[in-house]
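Anyone up for a design puzzle?
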């Protein structure tokens, strides 16, 4: 179903689970399309980390260490900036680890869904269909979290733009 003039440029075709659908999605990787390099960007605190008890406890514990580490600093504003820097460093590190874990879990879930779908195709028993439904529900739950993040980021962008509509076309 790929046009003949694109056949040679297709690097990879994969069938993946779709979100909230009975159908699967198809991904194409096409040679010649360069991904733009990503670099450091403007960092914003992810407030969902405040729901992570381990993170909150770690920051509270480390706070006293940072104050002790900065005891030589006379200016309270410089000390405050030093503590903010330490919190930012720990937060970015934790955020990267959580994102990596989420991506790994999502990939594992996609592979499990593919395997379960194959089993259902070969042997459509009630047990296999229930397993597939459970995996698909878990997959949808992960994408619900991703969608919530996108909603929050769009609200932030709207607010930062002064609440005005941005025409991108």
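Challenge accepted. My sequence:
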């Amino acid at each position: 179903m790929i046009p003949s003039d694109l056949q040679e440029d297709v690097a990879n075709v994969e069938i993946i689970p779709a979100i909230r659908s009975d159908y699967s999605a198809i991904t194409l990787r096409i040679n010649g399309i360069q991904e733009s390099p990503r670099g450091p960007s403007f960092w914003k605190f992810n407030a969902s980390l405040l729901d992570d008890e381990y993170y909150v406890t770690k920051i509270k514990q480390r706070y006293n260490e940072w104050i002790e580490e900065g005891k030589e600093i006379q200016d309270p504003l410089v000390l405050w900036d030093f503590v903010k820097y330490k919190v930012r460093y720990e937060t970015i590190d934790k955020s990267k680890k959580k994102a990596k874990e989420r991506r790994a879990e999502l990939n594992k879930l996609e592979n499990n869904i593919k395997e379960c779908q194959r089993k259902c195709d070969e042997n459509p028993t009630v047990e296999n269909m229930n397993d597939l439904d459970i995996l698909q529900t878990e997959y949808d739950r992960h994408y619900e979290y991703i969608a919530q993040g996108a909603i929050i980021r769009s609200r932030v962008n709207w607010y930062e733009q002064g609440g005005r509509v941005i025409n991108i076309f």
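A detail worth pointing out: DSSP finds three helices and two strands in the chain.
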